Amino acid sequence: MGTTQAARGNGVAVADAPEPKYWHLRTVLVRALDSEFQAGEVLPNERDLSARFGVARATLRQALDQLELEGRLVRRRGIGTLVAAPRMGVPVAETAGRDSWRIVDAGYAPAPAAVATTLGIPADEPVHAVRRLRMMHGQAIGAETLYVPDAVVPHVPAIFAKSSIADSSRARSVLRQLQRLELDGESRTVELGVAEEEQARMLERPPGTPVLVLTTRYQAQGGTAAVAVSTYRADMCRLTFGASGVVDVTPAAPAAEVRTAS
Amino acid sequence: MGTTQAARGNGVAVADAPEPKYWHLRTVLVRALDSEFQAGEVLPNERDLSARFGVARATLRQALDQLELEGRLVRRRGIGTLVAAPRMGVPVAETAGRDSWRIVDAGYAPAPAAVATTLGIPADEPVHAVRRLRMMHGQAIGAETLYVPDAVVPHVPAIFAKSSIADSSRARSVLRQLQRLELDGESRTVELGVAEEEQARMLERPPGTPVLVLTTRYQAQGGTAAVAVSTYRADMCRLTFGASGVVDVTPAAPAAEVRTAS
DNA sequence: GAGTGGTCTAGACCACACG
DNA sequence: GTGTGGTCTAGACCACTCT
Q1: A110, A137, B146, B242 from A130: Cα distances, Å
Q2: Which of B190, B207, B242 sits opposite A187 (nearest CB)?
Q3: Is the pLDDT assigned to residue B213 strictly greater than 90?
């Protein structure tokens, strides 16, 4: 047994706690990031780092994966691994600033089963689906699809209503009418997810990117008038709630360029 | 080039979209989970699965990693890979049910730098740190540390105040006084993190487990009276906000046992 | 002891960005 | 072309759980 422990020896291993190498590596790197690096700096490449720490590249990558999940690093294929800027505070206000959204388009098709259930409509009933991007500091940090049943926005022009073609005119029409609605309130949920193909494309990230999934139920007249499913880049965003008046929370970003190009 | 694509051939690869094998695998598995499996069922072991799909075990594991991050699978060393139950809705109410918390202990030491800044106190000033567990369905799904400056709870008995020994009597004393405070409101943030050693231990999970980090600032008299940092298991929790009255959101859990033992 | 997931290795090749 | 991160492989051994 003692032999086993020694043989495995990860350089710091003690018989007491067989800490995985990659986790120990992460700890070392965290300390280095905190003390010796500035946001935007480029780390040595993975092959050099793994050699320096005396581990296989795959093991080093496991540590980097953790740090990327925590938003401490940004890896760019063909470029290198950079130190990330602190996460942005993203307000999820009751009436979230509408100028921070960029409309993409809107379609008219059945919603996902879970959404249809929440809306209290048949699973095969088509609804308006407005897609838009949450912009911050000039870049897309979140993608949202807003599902609105026909009955809630009865005045969408028939030109749009009958067509399933996605366009932004329909989006504006739906949003306009939704804003006029008297809402009783909103309830929200947050959970962890991964970006599927469509969202990944909108966020300009590879599929599988971890995202914070924010689901908003807009209540009106005792029921749910609309549902919004927003996916925010988990590496870049810190969602902020109910900060009445407190809007910022975001450092003025001296090294904003780190996140500028995705 | 065409040769390259064919040689790489992942079984479904088309020249158009060089989709990674592990991502394609995930898609296949998601479909299988949706249609052929019940929560709590055990999947074939990794060696069998990788052979069946004709990939290396590491590649299969990459797909399973994704599914675990999404909360679709639970992997237990020595046991196998199980289909997870749907995530629990965890209310983050203004006055979150106090009986869903289990007090662990409380200490008296300087808070992390970021917390001290928020509280507007010197980084080296000791504060009360109450640690407790969020329980649901009989299991710990979140761990919280509540930081309260001395000035906010002046009536903590001197027996506790002078000692840095962690115990639950101090915790109760601090919580009691905090409840009597008149709060102007609370602001919250949610972001993705990974469980460090201490939290991991409290949650009975390995270090590096992804967690939703919920930071609550309790406002009083124009300032921040206290700060709570809660880490919830990202694989099991869906945080719910402002669901006035709507408390549940959690299925009655016919296969609750899936999550019973961590 | 047998079976499972977790860690680690060494090496190969691919996709992408840049000069 | 060169250098970077991303994917994939085949194999080994460890830690854990159950019988």
Answers
A1: 13, 23, 40, 24
A2: B242
A3: yes
Q: How confident is the model at residue A170, as a pLDDT?
A: 80
Which residues 37 to 96 of B reach strand C, CB within 7 A?
Answer: 43, 45-48, 57-58, 61, 64, 75-81
**Residue B53: is its pLDDT beyond 90?**
yes
**Would you call B241 and A189 a contact, using CB atoms and an 8 Å cutoff?**
yes
By the 8 A CB rule, do A150 and A178 touch? no
Instruction: Please give the Cα distance from B184 to A188 (Å, whole number).
Output: 22
Estimate to the nearest angstrom the gap between the alpha carbon of A226 and the chain centroid: 21
Shortest CA distance to A194 belongs to which of B72, B250, B81? B72
Amino acid present at A161? A
Give the residue, B80 or B107, on which the prediction is more confident.
B80
- Specify the pLDDT at position A137: 87
DSSP track, B140-177: EEEEEEEEEEGGGSTTS-HHHHT----BHHHHHHHHHH
Query: What proportion of chain B, given as a percentage, has pLDDT over 90?
Result: 62
Residue A258's pLDDT is what? 47
**Is pLDDT above 50 for B86?**
yes
Please give the structure tokens belonging to residue A29.
């790197």
Domains of chain A: 2-83 (1.10.10.10), 88-242 (3.40.1410.10)
Per-residue confidence (pLDDT) for residue B137, from 0 to 100:
87
Contact A241 B69 (CB under 8 A): no
Pairing verdict, β A237-241 and B73-76: unpaired
Contact residues on chain B for A243, CB-CB shorter than 8 A:
187
Flag whether pLDDT at B174 surpasses 70.
Answer: yes
Using a CB–CB cutoff of 8 Å, tell me whether A65 touches chain B: no
Q: pLDDT at residue B76 above 90?
A: yes
Kindly list the residues from chain A whose CB atom is less than 8 angstroms away from the CB atom of residue B95.
none
Q: How many CA within 13 A on the CB side of residue A25? A: 24
* pLDDT confidence tier of residue B165, bands split at 50, 70 and 90: low
| A235 and B CB contact within 8 Å | yes
